[in-house]
Design goal:
Blueprint (H helix, E strand, L loop, with lengths): L1 H26 L22 H28 L3 H22 L8
Helix pairs in contact: 1-2, 1-3, 2-3
């Protein structure tokens, strides 16, 4: 019982880490890290319009949250409540870091 819960927690952790890496690497096209100067911050680079960020975030959310939501519904259907709440936490975490990657980093610039 405890071993299954630990394995479930590790699976969700790997899923969250993979989703963050994929979002940061492939879907966040608005990163201009190559424009950073020696002591530059994210505020010193051009800001991509909200329309482009909205589109990128929607595509990333579709591809990365769809499998998590399918797993979430399946866990609810088979009444595995621990894993259901664990995947609820995973979806909330993915939504938060998606918000951070596409909008949150730019808040302190304005």
């Amino acid at each position: 019982m405890l071993k299954e819960k630990i394995i479930s927690i590790l699976e969700v952790s790997i899923c969250i880490a993979l989703a963050y890496w994929l979002t940061d690497t492939f879907f966040a096209f608005n990163k201009y890290s190559w424009m950073f100067e020696a002591n530059g911050s994210i505020c010193s680079i051009p800001v991509v319009s909200n329309v482009n960020r909205d589109l990128q975030a929607a595509v990333a959310a579709f591809f990365l949250l769809s499998p998590l939501i399918i797993i979430l519904i399946r866990k609810l259907y088979v009444r595995r409540m621990f894993e259901f709440w664990l995947y609820c936490l995973a979806v909330a975490t993915c939504l938060f870091f998606g918000w951070w990657l596409f909008w949150g980093r730019y808040l302190y610039c304005h």
